[in-house]
Amino acid sequence: MTGTRGGFEALDPCVHCGFCLPACPTYLATGDENDSPRGRIHLIRALERGEIQPTDRALVEHLDACLGCRGCEPVCPSGVGYGRGLEAARVRLAAAGRLPLEVRAILAVFARAWLLRPALLLARWFRATGFPDRLSGHSPIQFLLGMLASTTAGPSGSTPKPAPATRGRVALFRGCVMDGLFGHVHEATRRTLAANGYEIVEVDGQTCCGALHDHAGDRAGAAALAEANLRAFAGRADFLVVNSAGCGALLKDLPHLIPSDAARALAAKVRDVTELLAAAGPRPGAPLAERVCYDAPCHLQHAQGIHREPLQVLNAIPDLEIALLPGFDRCCGSAGLYGVLHPELSRAILGEKVAAIAAATPQPSLVLTGNPGCLMQIGAGLRAAELPIGVAHPVELLDRSYRAAGYYH
Amino acid sequence: MSVSILESLRSIAKSAVISGPDGVPVVRPDSAEAIAAVLGHASEQGWRARVEGRGSWMPTDAPADFVIRTGGLDRVVSVAPADLVATVQAGATLETIDQSLAAHRCWLPIDPPGGDSRSLGSVLATATAGPLRHRFGPVKDHVLGTTVVTGDGRIVKAGGIVVKNVAGYDLTKIQIGGFGAFGVVVEANLRVRAVPAARALVVATGTLDLLLDQARLLREAAIDLASLELCSPTLLGGDRWTLIVQATGTAPGVAAEIDRVRSVASGASFEGLGPGQASRLNRAVAQAALDGPVSLRAGVLAAGTPDLVDTLGETIGHRRLSASLGAGGVRWVGNPTEAHVRALRHRFAEREVPLTLERAPWAFRRAVGHFGAFREGVRPIAARLRSTFDPKHVLVSAIEATE
Amino acid sequence: MAPANTDRPDPGLLAALGAIVGPKWVRSHLTERRPFEADGLPTHASVPMAVVLPSSREQVIAVLKLLAERNVPWVARGAGTGLSGGALAGGNAVLIPLTRMNRILSIDPVRQRAVIEPGVVNARLSDAAAPFGLQYAPDPSSQTACTIGGNVAENAGGPHCLKYGTTTNHVVALEAVLPDGSLARLGSPHGEPWGPDLVGLFVGSEGMFGIALEITVRLVPLPTTIRTLLADFATVRDATEAVGSIVAAGIVPAALEMMDQACIAAVEASIYAAGYPTDAAAVLLVELDGATASVEAEAALVHELLRAHRARGVRSAETATDRARLWQGRKKAFGAMGRVAPDLVVQDAVVPRSSLPSILETIGTIGRKYRLTVCNVFHAGDGNLHPNICYDRRDSALADRVARASAEIMEACVAAGGSITGEHGVGADKIDYMPMIFDSTSLAMMCDVRRVFDPANRANPNKVIPIHACREWREPQ
Fold first, then answer.
1. What is the pTM of this model?
2. For A48-57, how does the pLDDT look when each residue is reduced to its tens digit (9 = 90+)?
3. Residues 54 to 93 of B: which have CB under 8 A from any C CB?
4. Which of A17, B63, C263, C408 has its CA 20 to 30 A from that of B380?
């Protein structure tokens, strides 16, 4: 789907107005034009013209420092396709062999289920020991433990009472990290969808979506994973439901990796779980008298243009008080591998968000957001700040409300 | 010496030159070029010149080798009602300007102390604004551009005649309130307004505290007023303080705001004045500001005014005092000693309040300066600007501080 | 001044700068200097010798002292959204972005004043003041991104300056560091200066007098009532005549903006589509604010005047959301031009309001003569035109036509009694136009005043005043 210039043409409308600057988390953190969308476009254009080499240290540093949140796109009056242009540049950088060793190692693991599954199993076992929860904190290692602890499940184990499934067959995209650490979110997704009249089908042969690979410029790796998913899902259901904003964004954009009709057809069926629930109403649950705040994942709001649906889902819970805190629509600094590769900047960006949550009065009991990376990042940040505030996916809360309403066995 | 100055001025100025009452030659140029010729020559000769408008605000007793009187430059050059701009020569009086503007249904909302007989040049050089600064801002907000003759006879234009303009440095600004130290303003392009459809004036009288309180209430209610001026008993010749409130705009708008004034007021009653009474009161306020040899103005915010008025009362008495209780700014007219002014400047400086000497006999000006002590870094800039605009210090001014 | 190679800045200087701000905040690699080669007007470009990003007033002062000792020219920069190439630094100059100095130091709701550092983004100050019922009135279209330090340098305007005045009317005091590293405290919280009005002189000096380290501004109460009207017209002349009639009626709208058909089309194609009628020859956006009764009375009168000038329809924004939508379209219009073509010439001429009908016809004629599309989006209430010409500079014949058309448009505006820039500043872009409106004596005086602050001409060199204007005056001296 990319044009003859490999995606660089998406940057052509930029007239350098700078309206993107305040929307960029890294620019706000450093104040350096190099870390702004406009500055990066400048660099990427020079890369395309051959004036900067793809091996240039500074170029790599500043493009790597981009979260890829695409917060700059909705504020751009000219409609610059920043994400597209960035990926084009990252493909060049990757081709020039500049992916850091640790990135290549991580991507290799994610591309291989036989490596990833045991790794995640180990992580679950470690999580179950309770150590990550107790040891989480501020230092880099403690922060990683906090991320793991933030994936801990709530109560589970019930099944929905049988209801007529009239809204269509839905295949659940299980993904990698979601499947390994957020099985409880998958369960909540299945139950809440079923309670809203969707029929859930399980699809084998699916794999990691490849978003990490794509964002890192490993287009071949991403395309291989996309092919596998296309084979697994093609023709299997009316909808392919995703509860991870990052995976959803990639799957909706599948044709840019595989320019085929089949890919286009599958992409057209992809829905975020909140979209399907919102389309169904959703069915009101039992009251939960809690104050929560919602945080919008970048790949939901900017990449997929989904703003209202998560709030519609939460509005199905009577008595729930939902706050949108200052900066709720700004990146948390997680951004896939970003937190691992740029811990300092990532934590600086997260710091703003945690400060806004800490300053909220009355304090919320939960931060709700629909992306695994954001759940782990924000969760770890709240733990590091020693705030007694949990994190959860919006469907988890709806699930609780449904259980209280007696919709489940 | 002055005879030879008189004669050489006659040959250069190509304008009327007479011998003044104290034997000092007086030139009455009728063009910027004539002033430029005179000042250029004076600069070469090392003569010092005193610039006078109508003789009430700029110094008339300062020692000088000759006098430039701007009364010959008294024309309203143009009025463009569709653009709401006018070009006026500096020697024109406010009265002349008002009449010309009124013929085009335009209005210059500057109502300085001293009143209609003042020349525009004196208003600009001293930056004296009156009660209407509450809505319409300080003098500088009305000036779009100027033509200035420098102390060495260059004719410099700054700004323009459009209401919005950022071409080049804003050289006009230092002429306004520059007390004549940076050149002679010969012509100004003014931003004017359409004559408002309706005006109203109401007054309340009472104790100082009561009226300060009323003003605070009006301010907090964000009532849209044209002026909110407090006047001391001496200023208006009574034994009570007076709060004068004006509103301008559309008839329904003005009526509604005056209604709000009355409903917000607490413990004071606001009495409406008819148009004749209102303009007599405004004139009285302006004229009273000349009933004393020295005018001071303090750049204080409305919130700090009560405290500052108290301080003035305790030190030099309230005398003829007026204060804008919206935009801020206190004017005091009386007969203080130089020591008083210095002491007050010290006390006010601690509160970040400048005290400017607007008007005084020359010796007094010379002794305390218009501005007093400059703040950090300002003295060298002011001195270099003075040398840039008037390299030989031909123009007599007490801008250099003496403290 | 020592010439410096663009590719190899002096290592000693870089080390000294690094010692002041930390090596991380000195950008010397060519790649990292490139993004600073242009501001909001990329048709002008120049890569600075080095970029240094200070984060405190002490650092700025130390940097300026160092550059003074070494006789190195420098250019201060805000967010780089300026539209006159004013923040361009040559290959021998150090660029000093002030984006990291972005603290709001205080907001005093009682005294209605705020003290801020220069890197504070314009809209952020209004956001911070809003809980107190106050706002910072100057609202350049780039207000979500531009810094107040940059606004001070350029004396920035914006739609609402028609009623509220531009930056110069809102800045009351400044702490500035001069090019020699010395400090000057200008103005007072009230606005009355301690001496001549140096704040008024400093504002709009385009970064050539020094760097403002702390800026004290007035905050004004948020209006109780706001009414925004959108009128559309079948001809541009009708729209411009309606503007004149509103102003002449004694109404001072908070804003009075106009967009022509080409501009409406670009905005409506963007994500900021405001619902402007795309078949209109022009739309007028009229905003009235203030006390309820007067706003209503004025709105009725404006409505009448718009109808009398053959407005096809007049829409009134009923809610804050509607109003924001109408304004978004106007404020993002410049950026939306990127949809039309990759490059853009942005003019900023001012004409007397009464000349608007004829000057717009002249601009149309010039556009047709050179076969160019001219989009007009401008502050009609104060006659501040922004004719934008979209083109592709890779087509050199086209670029040449654009240059000639721009010059002709400027000549026409000046001939009508106007100015070459209303709010963007002269910068590098309009420097050649300066002699069109100022004689050599006046230009030379500007040079002299600049030397009062910067005797070595090191602060933002080669901007605003054409060099020859300085020489012509100085040589006979």
1. 0.93
2. 999 999 999 9
3. 80-85
4. B63
**Helix pair A140-149, A113-128: axis angle to 10 deg:** 90
Q: Is the dihedral of CA A121, A122, A125, A130 positive or negative?
A: negative
CATH annotation of B198-359 = 3.40.462.40
Residues of chain B with pLDDT under 50: 1, 403
Would you call B350 an interface residue with chain C, using a CB distance cutoff of 8 Å? no
What domains appear along chain C, each with residue ranges and CATH number? 11-97 (3.30.43.10), 104-221 (3.30.465.10), 223-340 (3.30.70.2190), 341-424 (3.30.70.2740), 438-474 (no CATH)
Domain ranges of chain B: 2-71, 76-194, 198-359
What is d(CA C433, CA C443) in angstroms, rounded to the nearest whole number? Answer: 12
Taking alpha carbons only, the member of A290, A298, A287, A231 closest to residue A258 is A231
C171 pLDDT above the threshold of 60: yes
**Do B and A have ≥3 inter-chain CB pairs under 8 A?**
no
pLDDT digits (tens, 9 = 90+) for A104-154: 888 888 888 888 888 888 888 888 888 888 888 888 888 888 888 888 876
Minimum mean pLDDT range among C56-70, C173-187, C333-347: C333-347
How far is the C-alpha of A278 from the C-alpha of A280, rounded, in Å? 5
Q: How far apart are CA B175 and CA B148, in angstroms?
A: 8
Cβ separation C465–B168 shorter than 8 A:
yes
Q: Measured at the alpha carbon of residue B301, what is the angle toward residues B295 and B305, in degrees to the nearest 5?
A: 70
Contact between residue C141 and residue C331 where contact means Cβ atoms under 8 Å apart? yes
Q: Where are the alpha helices (DSSP H) in B201-274?
A: 208-220, 233-236, 251-264
Fold assignment, A284-404? Rossmann fold (3.40.50)
H-run or E-run covering B133:
helix B133-136
Is B140's CB within 8 Å of C197's CB?
A: yes
Q: In whole angstroms, what is the distance from residue B31 CA to residue A183 CA?
A: 90
Inter-chain residue contact C32 with A15, CB threshold 8 Å: no
Judged by CB atoms closer than 8 Å, whether chains meet at C145 and A19 is answered as: yes
Contacts of B150 in chain C (CB under 8 A): 445
Q: How far is C245 from chain A (nearest CA, A)?
A: 33
Helices (H), ranges, C159-235: 161-164, 198-202
Q: Is C471 on the interface with A (CB under 8 A)?
A: no
Residue window 280-319, chain C: list those with CB within 8 Å of chain B: 290-298, 301
Taking the C-alpha atoms of residue C372 and residue C363, their distance in angstroms, rounded to an integer, is 11
As a whole number of Å, the end-to-end CA separation of chain C is 23
C-beta atoms of C190 and B176 within 8 A: no
d(CA C285, CA C271): 19
Question: Does the pLDDT value for residue C472 go beyond 50?
Answer: no
User: Residue A9's closest chain C neighbor by CA?
Assistant: C342
* Closest residue by Cα to residue B35 from B157, B177, B182, B150: B150
Task: Find out if CATH 3.30.465.10 is the number for domain B76-194.
Answer: yes
Which pLDDT value is given to residue C4? 40
Contacts of B among chains (3+ CB pairs under 8 A) = C
Task: Give the contacts of B300 (CB within 8 A, at least 6 positions apart).
Answer: B308, B328, B329, B330, B348, B351, B353, C190
Span(s) in chain A for CATH 3.40.50: 284-404
Please indicate if any CB of chain A lies within 8 Å of the CB of C84: no
Out of 1.10.1060.10, 3.40.50.150, 2.40.10.220, 3.30.1330.10, the CATH code matching A8-95 is 1.10.1060.10
- Over the stretch C352-381, which tens digit does the pLDDT of each residue have? 999 999 999 999 999 999 999 899 988 999
Where helices occur in A255-371 by DSSP H, the ranges are: 261-269, 273-279, 298-301, 309-315, 338-341, 343-359
State CA B196 to chain mean position distance.
23
